[in-house]
Design goal:
GO terms for molecular function: lipid-linked peptidoglycan transporter activity. This protein is mainly alpha-helical and 510 residues long. It has helices at residues 2-31, 35-73, 78-114, 120-133, 136-152, 157-181, 184-199, 202-207, 220-251, 258-293, 297-324, 326-334, 341-355, 358-373, 378-402, 404-429, 435-466, 472-496, 501-504.
Amino acid sequence: MIVSAALLLGVSSLLSRVVGLFRDRVFTSLFGAGDTFDSFVVAFRIPDLIFNLVVIGALSAAFIPIFTEKMVTGKKGEEDAHRFALSILHLMGIGIGILSACFALFAPQVIPLIAPGFSGEKLDMTIMLSRIMALQPILLCISFVFSGILNSYKRFFAYALAPILYNFGIIAGAMYLVPILGVAGLGWGVVLGALLHAGVQFPSVLRVGFHWRPVLISSSKDLLNIWRMMLPRVFGLAAQQTNLFIVTIIGSGLLSGSIAAFHLANNVQYIPIGIFGIAFAQAAFPTLSEQFARKKRADFRHTITKSFRYIMFFVIPVSALFYLLRSQMIRVLFGHGAFNWADTTVTYETFGFLVISIFAQATIPLLTRAFYAQQNTKIPVLISLGSIALNTALAFPFARMYGIQGLAIAFSVATIVQLAVLLGILHIRLDGFDDKKVIISISKMVAATMVAAIATQLLKTPIAAIVDMQRFWGILTQLLGSFGGGIIIYILVCMLLRSDPRSCVKIPQN
């Protein structure tokens, strides 16, 4: 079940990321890495903060475990679970509606606080976009309650399709609404995307028997439980959002386009994280919650260990090849229209420092969900707070020395430390991870990656000699040829070392 679900989510994540990259290419082609793109990214910050703190805080940490528990052990099963979901939908909808309205009202006072380097027309444009985007959290609140229900039923198709349609909505705004409405069309594209995100999941929610009725509170015990589990997670998410606000606050005082460059680099490096890390974490979470509820401790530990190794099998080589081909990737993806070579350089340099921590970013979601499945949110939150403190301490001096690239260095260092601490504590709580197998399998992956990296580097020169590297198709040929060759070598070496997924990291069906 986990493998098939992870495959579906991984494929959908890949499609979503491809569409997201096309979205970014449309933006860079129209606006370059300049003031308009900077304004769009900053305008997203507060609506995204509201959504993450209230919706993600409740659903990722508390909704699925409690919903699943009611399905498995509740007196009335589905009826109790659906009543609980309605309570969350109504209460969160009211809360987010109030927060979004307040932000729209006070945007002129809030935006200068998070982008102190913005002024004049750039500031006005950011305020205008942020007010339109204040509608987004309300729609995504509804959508993510639907997502939580479908995940609990282990029905992932509509949930997997939602982010793809979300990106199509934003693209439609840039391509078709901007010519009509001006820059405001970017904001309305975000609203359209959020509406599509919810709409595509609605029929599937109806099919599992969920129907709206006027329920406000299922029980005080449920609310206390979700509040107990949600509150630490909210603080943890607030800490994580601090990373983005650090980029915004410091980046607004750097060269024009610095925020856009970090945003683009972060989106590209997140591709393998979404395809492998997030997909496996999301697919494993309902199973982990069920195993914990049924007190299957050995199965719980086994699921974490195998999922961790599976993620590492993919992200270790991909991150290495991303680093070696960073300039080609950025130029191929965004080198069009208003996006010039100066924009390319600052973006691929930032990207290079971010990919160093891909392995950590991809496995942290699985480890944190292992704690959430145990209905323990405090430990990962405290670790996250420590990571943010380290990131903040490093970001300011590094930005002074290295510009926007310094923020990428600080982020990667803090993320790797966060992974190390999470692993250490979870290792103690679960009495180990079958350490010998983990160490041997990851050592084989690293060895295969080193061989693949050498092959990739060797392939770049002969390919460059036979294509025109001043043109898109020449750069694309070098990128695909070198990357493809490196992946083939990695697979062959893994097979030689008996480190392929089937023999090394196969996850049992549950």
